[in-house]
């Protein structure tokens, strides 16, 4: 009985961890959508959107460079995650800085 209970709990924990994990590409895509939405709504100026897109391209080039050898090491993954958090912070900061794009 205890074995079934423990296995059930482990299975649920494993499923919940997998559901919360989001791939680098998924986060990259979500950030790109946030930039586009901010540009369309006027929350981002043209210059801010350009800078954020440039950061996204830089991060994508780093990802491609890391993948070149066929394996992304733990340190490289950590660096990419850091870059994504940094871009995410910049997106938030630019969208909430009060600069508006007027049509």
Give an account of the 3D structure.
Helices cover 79% and strands 0% of the residues. The protein is mainly α and 103 residues long. It has one domain (23-95). α2 (24-41) packs antiparallel against α3 (46-67) and α2 packs parallel to α4. The longest helix has 22 residues, at 46-67. The chain is flat. It starts with a helix and ends in an 8-residue tail after the last helix. The model has no long low-confidence stretch (mean pLDDT 84).
Topology:
Layout: H1 2-20, H2 24-41, H3 46-67, H4 74-95
Order of helices and strands: HHHH
Strand content: under 5%
Structural class: mainly alpha
Helix content: over 70%
User: How many individual domains?
Assistant: 1
Oligomer class:
single chain
Taking the sheet with the most strands, its summary is: none
Q: Compute the separation of the termini in Å.
A: 67 Å
Contiguous helical run count: 4
Radius of gyration: 19 Å
Kindly state the number of beta strands.
0
Shape: flat
Runs in which pLDDT lies below 50 for 5 or more consecutive residues are none
Keywords:
0% strand, mainly alpha, 103 residues
In short:
This protein is mainly α. The chain is 79% helix and 0% strand.
